[in-house]
Protein 1
Amino acid sequence: MKYDFKAIEKKWQDKWEAENAFVASDDYSKPKFYSLVEFPYPSGSGMHVGHIKAYSGLEVVSRKRRMQGYNVLYPIGFDAFGLPTENYAIKTGMHPRVVTDKNIARFTEQLKKVGFSFDWTKVVDTTDENYYKWTQWIFLKMFENGLVFRDKTLVNYCPSCKVVLSNEDSQGGECDICHSAIVQKSKDVWYLRITEYADKLLDGLKEVDYLPNIKMQQENWIGRSTGAFVNFQVKGADEKLRIYTTRPDTLFGVTFMVIAPEHPLIEKYRDRLTNIDALDAYKDECAKKTEFERTQLVKDKTGVKLEGLTAINPASGKEIPIYISDYVMMGYGTGAIMAVPAHDQRDWDFAKKFGIDIVEVIKGGDISKEAYTGDGEMVNSDFLNGYTNKKDSISRMIEELQARGIGEMGVQYKMKDWAFNRQRYWGEPIPIVHCPSCGMVAVPYEELPLRLPNVENFEPGEGGESPLAKIDSFVNCSCPKCGGAAKRETDTMPQWAGSSWYFLRYIDPHNDEAFASQEKLKYWMPVDWYNGGMEHVTRHLIYSRFWYKFLYDLGLVPYAEPYAKRTAQGMILGANGVKMSKSLGNVVDPLDVVNEYGADTLRTYVLFMGDYGSAAPWSESSVKGCKRFLERVADLPSIAKGSGVTEKLESAFHKTIKKVSEDIEQLKFNTAIAAMMGLLNEIDAVGSITKDELMTFISLLCPFAPHLCEEIYEAEGGKGLLSLATWPTWDEAKTIDSTIEIAVQISGKLKGTVVIPADASREDMIAAAKQNSKIAAQLEGKTIIKEIAVPGKLVNIVAK
RNA sequence: GCGGAUGUGGCGAAAUUGGCAGACGCGCUGGAUUUAGGUUCCAGUGAGUGAUCGUGCAGGUUCAAGUCCUGUCAUCCGCACCA
């Protein structure tokens, strides 16, 4: 058969669409399979080969499931709010709506050209008002339930994008979008109280099937630690200085305290501090630094002692000094620490520099050289002396603290509340009204969606004000509560909002009454398999689990966790082994590959190039190799005239069916394809196959190269669509060969092989090995010490 | 610094419970077809003339180690003064 991939691919893509081949049905009697991939941000530069790899994995699984009789939901959509579109719109003068529509149309066309079996009737667009209506609706539910609050704090601000960023978006001290340096700025910020769900997010990980490193990253991100809060009496004042520690048992070793430069104690006791000028100066210096500089740079400890205020160590009763230093953060714990220089390296460094006492309370190290952080016997600690187990000494101390009313057990998280607003136009408007008499008032549900006003000018205001603030007709409104004149909130939601619940909307995308019907949610949830990039496992994946768990607590979704299983694909690197980038000129456009080699080749190659979860460089010649494979498959019908089944090929078929079926389930597409290539080599060596065997072959290959396989199937008289035909099954008995070749070793070294019946006993195996002339010759004159036979594998004769 | 992962031919990579290292593909070499290039097909392809040696390096356990243990080096990723 001539492999005219262009004609074939167009033909079958049209046919699948015309016949609604991949539309998930509402037939609840069938077993369901919901496979989810991260929907793309429709950027102006079009699709990247990375998208193809990301979607090809579950594409193969989904296609296999359909052939196995499942009702499959494999949806796609567009996460289209966000800065790149807005920046592009500002640059070109086009409206973001127009830009977005154009980009979505382009992505859609590209995705269809690759032949993905998405259910195109359920496309979701986060910027569609019928979608963001429900994003706002969920936000209001959170507002109603006390999970939304506003606070004035120092925030990460990107001077270039003129936007406030979450900690997650400003990692490493630079803006996630434009990579400019982040500065700290005081702002009114909307927060979602995600910390309230910290324990639930952590505990929920126990019941889901995520890759171990994904779980670990989430655990690190949430960063739960247990310890104790202890209140230190400030001397001569009716004031307690509260600290958090994970090692309350080292309390007897506390020789000073450190508070963050922004700690309120300073303001409160300004009058009593005799060196307030020095303290203010230090504080100013710190304020100038970004959090990045404060935390990232390895440097000497700095700080200033509070003159005029001291604290009392509640264990030893001794008076101890208090310092301010930037190594203590206001944002973690209570912004104050008890310093135990003998057993904490940071405290040790600080104590050495400022000449503070170092008191050993755990034996085992040399505290004159460095802090000792290991375990050991407690000393200098009164009632704790003699304890050697960390757990016991900690719980004993907590008992004591509670008995004396100066402290209690406590839990802290690294995760902070989620800064949930941006001063930008292209996002979901936050549906809140500020009323001079009623305060913050929710926009009534029946008024949703609160639409983005259609305006010409959407450039950000000076000083980081939202573009919406300039639109009087949007801002001025009446209070939903009292009817008086009020002003709308002008900030919009961050880009992560829309993606936090999109997988629920796919289930019922055109519903006007609810974000999705309960009946459908019950059938389709949870997502059976979610695949995406490693870069999203701490942000999007945590945010969306949070939203989902919130909805679960309201009884609006049926299961406690949204995703039963989560995997991740590896990146595709440029041919030179580094990340693809425009500036390096190593970007591969998937459409070029489709045009030159065909979609089937592209799909096969991205899955064949290596382990699905690992990064791998692009190789054009390997693409050609995959094309060659498909061309040879296209020629298979010419030798499918065989009438008799050969035993050898039959066994090879059963082995391949098994291998491909099992490998797909483990995302081992590279070895699945290799197995089919190997089978093809065997077929060519034999020179003929039966028509049934041909049909089996193209059924196995169909999820990878569906256009070509459909074409062959039709040409051979197959009924209906191959994509909806039956997945082949294997007979375990036929995967086992009757005779096998085993290795023969002498003293662990390979010396030859013998062919024996597969069910030979150990004795027969050894006998057969000894009969082999080469082996016999080598054993000549040697004493046999030991004989080992492993059925199906080898014989090892230990001889001297 | 802490946590995690990885290290196998010229290249991408395979390799149940320890059991013939290098499947499959690329590349390369030789041959056939072709006016030629390309394509396609056939044969070969870890190193070494050889006995043998070979999975980052050094040890160890074992009849047997890519796989298990100890140490070490390198690379990548995540977190990062988290009290």
Protein 2
Amino acid sequence: MSAANLRARVRAEMTEEIKTVARRHLATDGANLSLRAVARDLGMASSAVYRYFASRDELLTALIIDAYDAVGAAAEEAAAAASAPLDKWLAACHAARDWALANPHEWALIYGSPVPGYQAPQDTVVPATRVLLLLGATLAEAHQAGAVAERPPVTAGFVQELAPIAASYYPEMPPRLIADTLAAFFQLCGAISAELFGQLNKSVEQDRRGFFEFQMRGAAALAGLTG
Amino acid sequence: MSAANLRARVRAEMTEEIKTVARRHLATDGANLSLRAVARDLGMASSAVYRYFASRDELLTALIIDAYDAVGAAAEEAAAAASAPLDKWLAACHAARDWALANPHEWALIYGSPVPGYQAPQDTVVPATRVLLLLGATLAEAHQAGAVAERPPVTAGFVQELAPIAASYYPEMPPRLIADTLAAFFQLCGAISAELFGQLNKSVEQDRRGFFEFQMRGAAALAGLTG
DNA sequence: TGTACATCAGTGAACGCGCGTTCACTGATGTAC
DNA sequence: TGTACATCAGTGAACGCGCGTTCACTGATGTAC
């Protein structure tokens, strides 16, 4: 509440405002976002943006981190509101899809084609894993509760390959379930991207939500998650 | 072989050469491909390219159609060389992945985020369906041969929604299998894109081919395709 | 077979535009004595 | 409480660049009589 804090707060608000406008611009420019256009929309000189972000890439990074966090938070919240494992699973998937439909260009930014010339810094790694970890946690919980069907184990090579992930995140989980989690997550991304990137046009037009759920129930079934 | 034909042939070769160089540029510029840069690489004035393509978008369209056709042809060829249904299925999937690994930027062009401001013309629709139709045909064939497990039917809404596809492409196939085909195709795209767009970094590093096959066997299983 | 004409690939300059980033600066706000 | 100083958000001009597209043109190649 001191003067210094006020200054910091105004600064934080301005930073947010720049990001908000930049997010809007993702829609028209895609990933080759223009700093100047953002500044123009804010009614400020393009050079002023450099008080807040050292470069265009740094602004992009901020948008990417925010997007990962937003979709992650949405999925976590939805999963937390459900109780049965399969319900949690489907709630998380639907929440991710709903978020993607509401923010298609942010989805494209994080799960679409890589931005040419952009190198994601280390800070994006942790937020990027939130949805994946949530699916894994849901499956791990179901597994402990005995709600996951027994499945043939994966090969020894995979066991070794997945060992670091197992050690860091899921010490109790058999490697097979980790492989299933990864596969399910990619199924989730694939289903959402297919819908967002237009591959459903001319095939599924009416009940896309239903078709998505069909796919996510399939993903759950592959992971041994019984209804 | 007449003089007119010679001129036409030279023109066709030049057109191919422009596309080849443009494909190379996809790697650095992504979808915001620069006509001038392509012309520069060819040692010609940028205006000369307009003798061959009416606009940048038209060049992009040509690249997109070629890419769809290339991955489609690769998958078809691989499938034709196999005989058992599951072998055909896996061969097609691996061929698509191999093509994508060899041509990552073309893959991104057709299955990645849409190019901002680009509207795909009608000509791209048919080539875009080749891989999907191949998966469907493989499944249809297996179904006729009795190699597809019986599965619960889809809802009446889906039956209606998928009716046009069924009528056009798979008159003999139950709607459930059409839904499975679509889902499997999106799983294929999701798995390849995940690998190409970097989401496998730090999780599966060694045996990506094996992990891909694990996923595609899953997709086949979901579609009722028995080994 | 020779000549007049048509076709058309390619040139180079220009138009009008936008971009990221830097830099010296102004002026308001906050801080220390 | 008043004053000198430091901080820092924001300005506006500039640098050096690249872009898609158009246009009047040159000159080689092919065609028709």
